[in-house]
Amino acid sequence: MSGNIPKHITNVMVTGKSGAGKQPRIDVLTEEFNLEQLSTGDIFRHYLKTFNNYGYTENLGEFYDQEREQFISNEQISEKIGTDDEEIILGLKAKYFVDQGLFGPDSITNALLDSAFSKKQYQKQVLDGYPRTLNQAEFLMTLLHSNGSTLDFIVLVDNTDERIIQRTVQRRICPNCGKVYHLTYKPPVEGNCEKCNISVIQRSDDTEEKIKSRLQEFQKKTIPALDYLKKQGIPVVTVPGHLEEFTMENVRNSVLSEIEKIY
Question: What is the per-residue pLDDT for 3?
Answer without folding.
Answer: 66
